[in-house]
Design brief:
345 residues; alpha+beta; Multidrug-efflux Transporter Regulator, Chain: A, Domain 2; five-stranded antiparallel sheet; 12 helices
Length: 345
Amino acid sequence: MQTNQEKYYSTKEVAEMIGRSVSTVHAYVQEGKLKAVEDPWGGHQGILFSKNEIEQLMEIMPKTPEGLTLNQAAEYLQTNRNFIATYIKEGLLPASEGQIRGRIIPLIQESDLKEFSELHEKKIWEDRLSQRQYYNKKAKEAVYQRFSSPSIPEARLMRKGLGDWYFIVPGTDDTFSYIEGIYTHRLTPDYSIEMGKRSTKPGYAVLNLPAVYSLTYQVMDLLYQQLPVANMYMERLKDRWVIHMKDARLNSVSVELADFIKRSAKQGRVRYVPEYEALSIESEEELLSVSLSVDIKGWLRKKGEQTGKSMQDIAAEILEEMYKREQDQSGDHINHFQEFNQNRN
């Protein structure tokens, strides 16, 4: 764009000129490294920059692009570098090439990473949990799985983060390596754990269990034997295990264990039928099908493309916002009514 022999550039044009993303350009503006100018035409959507401002910025910019490595970005999002590389490949996360120790590697701006984490929070969460660091798919073994041998009645398989697997003997807290447990103590699993097929039903129930507790061990035995691993995700948070799980129907559940599961449920519904020793754990989310006009579907699709979310997510957010607004208004009416009665009294 040009007027009176002076040329101005849009945010997108600046990003292309300096080899950064649009988000990084906005970050430079907020940091005072780049100053926008008043729109001389009026009506142009977005901010503009003069050629002189852009040249001054390029003079102070490092020759090698700054940014986070794949490992640093993975630590920022609490995931692994493979997912970061996939996000870049899919065009969801901007990255530029940089040179570190003679190697050309992708570098991600922290501002881009922050924006990506806000737009794709659900995807990041599901990808992070789907890593299943607690499960060895090849061996079909998992954290807390019960093993035994003629000399050791019970041992639990454990793992620290992405580190080595090892065994712990409940009650004594004796520990030994995986190799020692399998080949020296002759430990074998008391049951197998299958990956199974993932449920497509929306939502998760959430259990919050103490990390070291006999009933927690029993809950894990129950889940591993009756629920496919594909429908269960686990996170270790300090001294707790947080389990996200799809709907499940569990059999042979004692009253004591059912009560423990009910008290541990932080999200979802838990129902127990004592006479059948049957327990159900269900998400509170329900699948709702509605008929929409082509115009509304198109609007939802456009909103989804702008925010990086699905049409279903956009529709759910709108309904939830309207519901909360109505609940808040109902609460205000009740408060006003109570105040009115208090004043009358």
